[in-house]
Amino acid sequence: MSRSRPVSANAPKAEGMRLRARLRYFYHGSSPMAVRFRLAVIVIDFAIIGFFLAAPILHEAGLVFYVVDYLIAAVLAADLAARAYAHTDWKDWLKKPVVWVDLLVLATLLFPAWLFNFGFLRLLRLWTLLNSDFFWRTVGHKWDDTRVEEITRALAALVTFIFVVTGFVYATFRNRHDGISGYLDALYFTVATLTTTGFGDITLPGNWGRLLSIVVMLTGITLFLRLAQTLFKPHKVRFPCPTCGLQKHDPDAVHCKACGETLCIPDEGS
């Protein structure tokens, strides 16, 4: 009669360590399998962001909308839990601002009936994704300069701001102001105000409406200037100086501008 092998008291701990090791392999590894996993996560993220964009229209679908909403909440909750468990110190992970933004997005998904008016904050997921190390370790490693990354981050900030403001205007002024009867009206107002075009056919009422318009104009100009700066400023490459640690240099730099250390920046074609 065979005896069952006794279960070690450390078995659950060992299983937990193996699970953490697997998650670290997929979320932080550099192997082709790990990169493919992260690419799949990024594709799912973009699909979820597309759902967030269409949410004001899809909300009319009723029960179907809430079913999809909770499915997305489950996916995001599992992703956040996996990232936290894969991190060396989850307390340090919680200190990152992008994590709190993602938790806020998750809250609007878990309580859609109560927090639907804050659904416009879900579009912040685009900003957190395109500003995350997770994204650039997976996609950005194809470029050895910082130009593409900086342009993408600046464009992400501008697009996110446009749709967050559009969602706020739609949720706040829809059916309360004659000019805002649909999502397209809110988007039209946001773009017209942000670009300071000022057609004047749609204006927000009251002092709060004027204050919001001022904030949109000032922030929009700032974001446009930042995008223009990243488009036209001189090209830089990322190459840490071995002496002072300066990260960005001219592509043909021979010496570090900060400390004078001799640099050996590889050619783009090498």
CATH class bucket of the largest domain: Mainly Alpha
Total beta strands: 2
- Here the CATH topology of the largest domain equals Four Helix Bundle (Hemerythrin (Met), subunit A)
SSE string: HHHHHHHHHHHEE
Radius of gyration: 24 Å
Structural features, described:
With 270 residues, the chain is mainly α. The protein has three domains: 13-142, Four Helix Bundle (Hemerythrin (Met), subunit A), CATH 1.20.120; 143-233, Helix Hairpins, CATH 1.10.287; 236-270. The chain is built from eleven helices and two strands, in the order αααααααααααββ. It has a two-stranded antiparallel sheet. It is flat. Keywords: Ion channel, Ion transport, Membrane, Potassium, Potassium channel, Potassium transport, Transmembrane, Transmembrane helix, Transport. It holds the Pfam family Ion_trans_2. The chain crosses the membrane at residues 37-57, 63-86, 98-120, 151-171, 183-202, 208-228. Residues 160-232 form the Potassium channel domain. Its main location: membrane.
Q: What secondary-structure arrangement, pairings included, does this model have?
A:
Blueprint: H1 11-28, H2 32-58, H3 63-86, H4 90-94, H5 97-110, H6 112-115, H7 124-130, H8 133-138, H9 147-173, H10 183-194, H11 206-232, E1 237-238, E2 248-249
Helix pairs in contact: 1-2, 1-3, 3-5, 7-9, 9-10, 9-11
Brief description of this entry?
The protein has eleven helices and two strands.
How would you describe this structure in keywords?
mainly alpha, two-stranded antiparallel ribbon, 1% strand, 270 residues, Four Helix Bundle (Hemerythrin (Met), subunit A), Helix Hairpins, single chain
